[in-house]
Write a structure and sequence with these properties.
The protein is mostly helical. Helix content is 69%, strand content 0%. The chain folds into two domains: 1-41; 43-86, no CATH class. The termini are far apart.
């Protein structure tokens, strides 16, 4: 996003002064997008979803935010704080979320193997 924004802004800035409003509007649009991205990336739910996703994990955050290491550091701190809050819970304390738990046919097939 940053490269595209700088390219578009450079093109708009090179226009005559009668077209200067174009670069102003483009810059305002990019700033609004940045604000929304920061709000999304700042939520714990978003961070947990990305980190716990089997394919993404911390690698995704580190790649996407490599130009903004403070964001990555802040996300890691928030993640660890929330993890510490819930680490005392044992898996037995959590309800099972398996759809097969209430399926007698699945249990019967499983016992045969």
């Amino acid at each position: 996003m940053t490269n595209v924004a700088s390219q578009v802004t450079t093109i708009a800035d090179s226009q005559p002064t009668s077209e200067h409003h174009l670069s102003t509007n483009i810059n305002a649009g990019w700033q609004k997008l940045k604000d929304y991205y920061m709000k999304r990336d700042d939520t714990l739910v978003y961070i947990w979803a990305v980190v716990l996703h089997p394919r993404m994990k911390w690698r995704w955050i580190e790649r996407q935010w490599k130009e903004r290491p403070k964001w990555s550091d802040n996300a890691r701190i928030q993640f660890l704080k929330l993890q510490q809050r819930y680490e005392h819970l044992q898996p037995a304390d959590a309800p099972s979320l398996s759809p097969y738990d209430s399926c007698p046919r699945w249990h019967a097939m499983r016992k045969r193997t």
